[in-house]
Specification:
Structural class: alpha+beta
Largest sheet: 12 strands, mixed
Oligomer: single chain
Low-confidence stretches: 1-11, 261-266
Number of helices: 5
Strand content: 35-45%
Helix content: 10-25%
Number of strands: 12
């Protein structure tokens, strides 16, 4: 008789026990934080590193492949970037050029972005072109300016990347994953880059937290491959690094600001 009473009591408690178990599971689920979007996590870290960037220097290996013409050109040089008094500067010095399988040759070419002006020095053509890219009282980040000519993204305005691209995190082999995070970006139909690029892949160096390799496919299906080698972050760069010594005999062309084509994303 006692056993029957105990069994009846336990049976009566089962619904309550099930409710308590469900409540415990609900509480446990509520206590667990939502899983972070892996792409958002990578972009947030990239934004933090880019915002803290005061100077940057690296070797530059820049290859342009043209599959339709079955040709390629490789330029090597150095990139410098720094901020001074709330204004940024970026200089690219190319020192060599190689076409296809030909021997690499000395070749001098310079780009200077100062937030307002792009200055291009062609030593072979003995000419200089200065193009205004922004209003003098509204300078933009030099990395944003360079992205219009060279697909180096991920150093500024990271929060704007998702407005311009569909972004996914690409799984790679274990060895590559230890060194890099790999993002693939597909240009959105209304993106400001829609006439320039179809897709861009870039690999973020895990140690530096900044892009180290960029592969961009243009609207014409040309492929731009950029490697930023031996990057140095916030090691200090002199202001005079961004002073160009232009030979007096070079011709100079000045191009005024074209407001309808101005862009500030990068």
């Amino acid at each position: 008789m006692h056993k029957m009473k105990i069994a009846a009591i336990l049976l009566g408690l089962l619904p309550t026990m099930r409710l308590l178990a469900c409540a415990d599971q609900a509480d446990s689920s509520a206590e667990r934080p939502p899983q972070a979007d892996p792409v958002q996590a990578v972009l947030a870290e990239l934004q933090e590193r880019a915002a803290a960037l005061q100077s940057y220097q690296s070797k530059l290996d820049y290859v342009v492949r043209q599959p339709i013409l079955e040709s390629q050109a490789r330029r090597r040089g150095v990139l410098y970037y720094a901020k001074f008094e709330n204004r940024s500067y970026l200089r690219i010095d190319f020192t060599s050029l190689q076409y296809d399988e030909e021997a690499e040759q000395a070749y001098r070419e310079q780009y200077l972005f100062d937030g307002v002006w792009l200055t291009y020095v062609n030593y072979e053509g003995r000419s200089v072109q200065r193009q205004q890219m922004a209003e003098p009282n509204e300078p933009v980040d030099a990395f944003s300016l360079v992205s219009r000519r060279v697909p180096i993204l991920g150093f500024s305005k990271i929060d704007d990347l998702q407005n311009q691209f569909e972004i996914e995190l690409v799984e790679t082999d274990e060895a590559t994953a230890r060194a890099f995070r790999h993002l693939r970006m597909t240009v959105k139909p209304d993106s400001i880059y829609r006439d320039d690029y179809a897709a861009i892949d870039f690999r973020i160096d895990r140690k530096l937290g900044l892009p180290a390799r960029v592969t961009a496919v243009t609207a014409e299906q040309d492929v731009h491959e950029i490697a930023l080698i031996e990057g140095r972050i916030n090691k200090g760069i002199r202001r005079t690094t961004f002073d160009l010594a232009i030979p007096p005999e070079f011709s100079i062309e000045t191009v005024p600001l074209q407001k309808d084509t101005g862009r500030t994303s990068g």
